[in-house]
């Protein structure tokens, strides 16, 4: 498995689509992977960010709907609210490599999550206090 | 350099043929009302949040204490830590500082005693913002809760929330406990008996690091109905998780009951250090 760090531009359709992709990839049990856009780029554009370990099948499947064609029926049976149209919106906006950008879902494959965040060009939008 | 305590512990451990966590359990069990030892090893890890599928590789979604209590990432594989290793090669839980955290599968009832010891061996990989190592409850204001945190770039803090005992605040002798450096391997211990009239204490790498100025903690014991969060604060609703820890997390101990004596604490720290290699 490889670490994938993802920045989803703070667009409601992209956030919704990305949440549905995570369920389709069997990474999430619900549609709440991305909620509050707590990250920003140098220009102040906001993003939701995740970082986790992905299998080769998941890495391929995030941009290739055919990779999951054989299990879509099974997953949609388990998750009746799974919206394949929303998935398609996210897949169309997905980019491997490069910085986060408005209108896109950018992803970096890198073992070090902090290095991946630097490549994405995002930092926490607000300071956190105890 | 190995201290005398560590040497004796190593010898005792080998003589009994016990693993390190078994030796730690034997040390801390006497007098404990509740003892949770989260030992970083594949035998205690699971690939599912229910703690049923033994972990082989990938995200660690479940971590059972040696007592069998389940701590898990309840919703998302991306929010689950991975496996890592300390510089000495021993296993650690790797938290990415982005979205990883675990939570006890049920409330961790610590109401059976007013005494609490929390011990953690870890290697911090990022600093600069507050980061939660472990926290009972949903925030620093949870009555009867507590937390163990890196306060900012250099400081370490333990707090018994809702009891007014905090370290690192003005007036505390332990104000600004400087850990120094980002990539830091350390063994931390916080202990307090709420109704004893004695100050809370914190130790780092087997040495007393500070005592609280506050000795008035009110009445009552620690909370009964709160979950324990590991690696982040979870305020209880989607989108309200924060203060993610970026670290290699080693043994984590939560022990309620009358406080152990100083020799027991030192020997326990030495066992944890034997795993993480801090000092």
Description of the molecule:
- The complex is a heterodimer of chains A (130) and B (279).
- Chain A has 130 residues and is α+β, with helices and mostly antiparallel strands.
- Chain A has helices at residues 12-24, 56-61, 72-78, 84-93, 113-120; strands at residues 2-9, 39-40, 46-54, 94-96, 105-109, 123-124.
- Chain A has a 6-stranded mixed sheet with strand order 4-5-1-3-2-6, sandwiched between helices.
- Chain B has helices at 4-16, 20-28, 262-276, and strands at 32-38, 45-46, 62-64, 70-72, 82-85, 91-96, 102-104, 115-124, 131-136, 146-150, 156-160, 165-166, 184-193, 201-204, 207-211, 228-230, 233-234, 241-242, 246-257.
- In chain B, the strands form 3 sheets. In chain B, strands 2-3-4-7-16-9-10-11-12 form a 9-stranded antiparallel sheet, with no helix packed on it. In chain B, strands 1, 5, 6, 8, 13, 14, 15 and 19 form an 8-stranded antiparallel sheet that branches.
- The radius of gyration of chain B is 17 Å and the shape is globular.
- The chains are: A alpha+beta (130), B mainly beta (279).
- The interface between A and B is medium-sized, with 27 and 31 residues.
What would a concise description of this structure say?
With 130 residues, chain A is an alpha+beta fold. Chain A has helices at 12-24, 56-61, 72-78, 84-93, 113-120; strands spanning 2-9, 39-40, 46-54, 94-96, 105-109, 123-124.
